[in-house]
Predict the 3D structure of the following.
Amino acid sequence: MNNHQIDISVIVPLYNEEESLPELAQWIERVMAENHFTYEIIFVNDGSTDRSWTVIEELAEKNPAIHGISFRRNYGKSPALNTGFSAAQGRVVITMDADLQDSPDEIPELYRMITEEGYDLVSGWKQKRYDPLSKTIPTKLFNATARKVSGIHNLHDFNCGLKAYRCEVVKHIEVYGDMHRYIPYLAKNAGFNKIGEKVVHHQARKYGTTKFGLDRFVNGYLDLMTLWFTSKFGAKPMHFFGLLGSLMFFIGLISTMVVGFGKLWRMKQGLPYSLVADSPYFYLALTMMLLGSQFFLAGFIGEIIARNSTRRNDYEINARL
């Protein structure tokens, strides 16, 4: 099947969700039939240890629009989404979680916002959540930080699994590690700037337990800093390390000179003086100079690596005449 032959691709990454899959598939099928969409459902089984893959096989036998991809082991949500994006063939790609907390009834409006309002990406916002405070408060802090760093100020819920994309978006981004939290930021960095948001219904988990712990917030912060740095300085590391290294080196150099000239002045004035090496400021100044030199060299090496990268001139071209 060629790209754009069907209206919607629904990608569902999952791990140990055997109970919810039949109900989710039936719900999506009903929504698609009511709105006369042509569609495919791609279940990406992320190394489940229960009967999830068997259930997917059974569903695919009943409905040819259902497809499955199964990992040999658990890799994480980002690799599952990236694999689903590669396989998706719809004009609009919808992602949702398999735990029934995302409502397929939101699909028609998400589809309309992409096809009629011209959005590149529409992210769901679970304005009213059915999660404990131990999860909602860190989520609010996380989203506030993500808005500040990414510059996408109109999104309230970066981590919502329910999102819609133009097909071109998912074909031009790579989701790796745990970067699924920052797909809007990845899309923005790829040149897709029309990013919208839709308030969506959030349902309490019906089966099983959550697969995510509080460590995801720590990892999410580190991933955000990585993404910010690579987007700002990935192609020009010398601009960051070179500037920081030069600044630290010159501060250390000036500090060393101040300590040395201070001793010479006291000698000339006949005042008591001590050895330069006896001053703690001397060692702090030397440390600054050494660190500055190392930062500068790190930028220089990074620049060499960037210039020899096979993707150094890999630019996103939107149109050509």
Observations:
- The longest helix spans residues 237-268.
- The mean pLDDT is 85.
- The first strand starts at residue 6 and ends at 14.
- DSSP finds ten helices and seven strands in the chain.
